[in-house]
Amino acid sequence: MQKLNGLNLTTLPNKVKTAAQAKFILIFLLKAHLLLRD
Length: 38
Fold this sequence. Notes:
Blueprint: H1 2-37
């Protein structure tokens, strides 16, 4: 159980980082799309 908890703790920051990057990319693409439309 301890091993599993350690694994979860090490993979969680990576998931959060990936989610933050995906969100940033989505916002960037949306802004670029709006700029191109004007």
